[in-house]
Design a protein that fits this description.
The structure is a single chain. 42% of the residues lie in helices and 13% in strands. The protein has 8 helices and 7 strands. The chain has a 7-stranded parallel sheet, with helices on both faces. Helix 6 runs antiparallel to helix 7.
Length: 303
């Protein structure tokens, strides 16, 4: 993808954290670019936009906050129309919006509500954005789906036999979008009924959502390759600190944002349809099929 300076980028969930930092890095890479930072809950005022532009410095006059709830398809349609009217096409999309809840397995009712909320935003919400904006993607556009170390396929580690079957399906290079959707619907159902670990699923709904995002990334790339539109999509674990998730090591917000921005600018012969670590090295997704995580309960690793 040519490094031009009239790029149009949209980053969901960008009012703070790595989403905001990645927007700042993109502004550095593409001075004068139009970068839309979306937020679900933050109040947007002229002052918030001005403060962001001053923080970004340089050529940030075209950077702007927009309200976006990824679970609201009407809201997404409004964003699509705005970009289409102003720019015609979108060059870069970074799907960072997401939600995390510490697993509460006290009852199927509580856990089921958590699963529905998390899958609803992290998987169905991301799909809403992809489907709603697809028609305005520039040929050769770049899409980045934010993943997590908890989204490693090995973390699907409920009951041994059933979790192996789930990992085999999720690693299948012929897995269809409909097949993945059905798996997520099955998980949401069993989460609300009880017995999700017996069915092979882990206790962490966030893990399920991010594994699904990674599998969806692979499905999307197959579609784009078939269409021949030059669009490249990758998932990336930025490696930065998350306020609610514990991990053994973190990289700085600066380095994580740089990794995300680089992922949004991969060359045509770079990684595509891949799940990447923050150093842009790809994960061999299928390797985890027969290597489930030894952490039997993902919830014990979360703060």
């Amino acid at each position: 993808m040519a490094l031009l300076f009239d790029k149009v980028a949209l980053i969901t969930g960008a009012s703070r954290g790595v989403g905001y930092a990645a927007a700042k890095k993109l502004c550095e890479k593409f001075p004068g670019a139009t970068i839309y930072l979306t937020t679900k809950n933050m109040e947007i005022t002229p002052a918030t936009n001005q403060n962001m532009r001053e923080d970004f410095a340089g050529s940030a006059e075209h950077c702007e906050y927009l309200h976006l709830d990824v679970t609201n398809t009407d809201n997404i349609a409004e964003i699509q129309e705005l970009i289409k009217t102003r720019h015609e096409t979108l060059d870069i999309l970074i799907n960072n919006a997401g939600t995390f809840l510490k697993p509460d397995t006290s009852s199927p009712e509580v856990y089921g509500q958590q699963a529905t909320a998390i899958i609803g935003t992290n998987y169905w919400g991301l799909k809403n954005v992809m489907n709603g904006l697809h028609d305005i993607f520039t040929p050769g556009a770049r899409v980045v789906n934010m993943s997590s170390h908890l989204g490693h396929l090995s973390m699907i580690n409920g009951e041994a036999k059933h979790s192996l079957h789930l990992r085999e399906m999720l690693a299948d290079t012929d897995l269809s979008e409909k097949g993945l959707d059905n798996l997520m619907k099955q998980y949401e159902t069993v989460a609300g009924q009880g017995g999700w670990t017996a069915a092979g699923w882990p206790n962490c709904a966030y893990t399920v959502s991010k594994v699904a995002v990674n599998a969806y990334t692979r499905i999307l790339q197959r579609r784009y390759d078939k269409e021949g539109n030059g669009i490249i999509v990758n998932s990336i674990h930025a490696g930065t600190k998350h306020s609610k998730i514990h991990q053994a090591s973190n990289i700085s917000m600066e380095d994580g944002a740089y990794a995300v921005a680089n992922c949004a600018c991969v060359p045509d012969k770079g990684p595509k349809g891949s799940i990447l670590w923050h150093n842009l090295s790809p994960i061999v997704w299928e390797e985890a099929v027969h290597r489930p995580s030894l952490v039997n309960n993902a919830a014990t690793e979360l703060n």
